[in-house]
Amino acid sequence: MAKAPRPGTVKTRLHPLLGPQRCAKLQAELIRHTMAVTTAHTPSAYLAYAPNDTMAAISTAVPAGVRLLRQCGEDLGQRLAAAVTDAFTDGAGPLLIIGTDAPTLTADHLSAAFTALEHHDVTLGPALDGGYYLIGLRAPHTSLFALAPDVWSTDRVLAATRALADGEGLSTGMLRPLRDLDTPEDAAALLTDPALPTPMAALLQPKAEAMTQVSIIVPVLNEESTIHSAVSRLCRDFPDCELIVVDGGSTDATAELAALHATVIGSERGRAKQMNEGARHASGGILWFIHADTAIEPEALGQIRSVLADPAVVAGGLTLRFDRRTPALNYLAWTSNARARRLHHIFGDQAMFIRRTAFDELGGFPDLAIMEDLEMSRRLHRRGPLRLLPATSTASSRRLTAHGTWRMIAFMQYLKLLYFAGADPEAIRARYTAGPRLFPKRNPAT
């Protein structure tokens, strides 16, 4: 039973330790190891894969002769029952059903399981977390998988399965327990186990370079006119960074254009939701959030890595400027940079970067309709210093100039005052979307 090694969907409890990309590599290695153990012991092997659209990817990762089955069913119990039925219908039996979460599984465990089935109806390989890494059946006793949905993935799975077997009068043999690999605690324990295969030990070892790897996350929505130049520029200037574009449901060609240069993932609409989803898929120890209509000075990457070499620093941003130079825009940039230095309020157009550990400890950006960057910088500052770097982030002035720069400056200060006064962020967002009406333009005819 194997889940395809797609980043962001496998070994999610290990994401804080390894990141989604390394978790996917770990899952691929677990599949390879399990299949190698299985095919060395028996010529008849099946791999039940999920999701359904991953057959092509899975088939390249398994040895020749392994028969592929699609996992079918709503929960794990239904999928196990369907796979067992398919295998027995195909003429298999006795049958061992194995997960891919036990990295210290060996052929000796399989031999012991088949031996136990010579004397018992069922054999179970207990996992230390209360589940099982293996179940052996002499006949298709699919009723053993009819556990309540809230029992699966708990420490009650093994006991509940034994109770079902006892209730049906089936004799059960028990194997030696093994540790599954699901959590950072499992990883730490397995690293001390000499039976852990070397490739998996290498993947589980903390790597200093992972802490300095930078993942660029770009939230987008209907940015067809800017996305191609934005992502191609980021690829050119920061070729060793992971680039993730998070589309919030664009109705134009944004996602298709971004996919030419970056990994594109979908998300619910909302900048906070999109940035958090991007972080969930990112593998870097440094998360860098950049708007699609912002140009970043190439020197910024080296400055980010340099400032984060100080373990006390948790986050920061770049010096803001605008793509047009007017007295009003110059004033706004100057006050924004002064605010970032003195009040530690960093907004999205300053290309906020965050140490991954701090991001995870805070649970990501707060799920606010607006001001999520302001609130995130306030929370980060409580954990450690934030730094404003000399490298520039050149933001688009399109919205500011469309409504009148001075009017927009006053309007944004008004919205911030509403936020600090405790107004509902959803109401503030609606007010922002409606535009600045605090100081309506005079009608020349009056």
TrEMBL record:
Query: Which keywords accompany this UniProt record?
Result: Cell membrane, Glycosyltransferase, Membrane, Transferase
**Matching Gene3D superfamilies:** Spore Coat Polysaccharide Biosynthesis Protein SpsA, Chain A
Q: Please report the stretch or stretches of sequence annotated as the Glycosyltransferase 2-like domain.
A: 215-331
Q: Name one Pfam family in it.
A: Glycos_transf_2
Q: In which pathway does it act?
A: Carotenoid biosynthesis; staphyloxanthin biosynthesis; staphyloxanthin from farnesyl diphosphate: step 4/5
Q: InterPro entries given for it?
A: Glyco_trans_2-like, Nucleotide-diphossugar_trans, Trfase_1_rSAM/seldom-assoc, Trfase_2_rSAM/seldom_assoc
Please give the chief subcellular localization of this protein: membrane
- Carries keyword GTP-binding? no
The protein's GO terms of the molecular function aspect are:
glycosyltransferase activity
What compartments host this protein? Cell membrane
Q: Name one GO cellular component term.
A: plasma membrane
Q: Which family does it belong to?
A: Belongs to the glycosyltransferase 2 family. CrtQ subfamily.
Protein purpose? Catalyzes the glycosylation of 4,4'-diaponeurosporenoate, i.e. the esterification of glucose at the C1'' position with the carboxyl group of 4,4'-diaponeurosporenic acid, to form glycosyl-4,4'-diaponeurosporenoate. This is a step in the biosynthesis of staphyloxanthin, an orange pigment present in most staphylococci strains.
| NCBIfam families the record matches | glyco_like_cofC, glyco_like_mftF
Mind telling me which PANTHER family this protein's record contains?
GLYCOSYLTRANSFERASE (PTHR43646), GLYCOSYLTRANSFERASE 2-LIKE DOMAIN-CONTAINING PROTEIN (PTHR43646:SF2)
Name the UniProt record assigns to this protein: 4,4'-diaponeurosporenoate glycosyltransferase
